[in-house]
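4.2 Preliminary Data

To establish feasibility before requesting continued support, the project team ran the inverse folding procedure on a target of 115 residues. The structure was first converted into the token representation described in Section 3, and no sequence information of any kind was made available to the design step. The complete token record follows.
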């Protein structure tokens, strides 16, 4: 089971990957939205902002998100690390229910290039 530090590191690496992306991925990452990532097996939530192609984690809280972010993710810590490392395909994990992504319809359309 991934630790809180490993999950935070994975989010930082994901942010770095987004910042270095080009084309459609860069455009999708250019949203300015609140973000939460609930790590189900650790029962913690990272909250922050997706802005200027980067994810800024501002807080870590116990349990599910206290406020409804505009983009919401939920998964296990191991799945987060595997996604960022490229060992787990996001679209397949989302389709199978291993990863949950909730956002407004327009945001989902923009985010699909990240999948």
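Position-by-position output of the design step:
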């Amino acid at each position: 089971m991934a630790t809180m530090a490993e999950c935070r590191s994975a989010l930082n690496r994901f942010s770095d990957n987004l910042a270095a992306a080009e084309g459609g991925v860069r455009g999708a990452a250019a949203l300015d939205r609140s973000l939460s990532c609930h790590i189900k097996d650790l029962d913690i939530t990272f909250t922050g902002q997706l802005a200027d192609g980067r994810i800024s984690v501002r807080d870590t809280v116990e349990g599910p998100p206290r406020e409804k972010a505009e983009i919401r993710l939920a998964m296990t810590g191991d799945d987060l690390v595997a996604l960022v490392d490229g060992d787990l395909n996001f679209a397949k994990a989302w389709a199978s229910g291993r990863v949950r992504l909730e956002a407004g319809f327009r945001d989902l359309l923009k985010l699909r290039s990240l999948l």
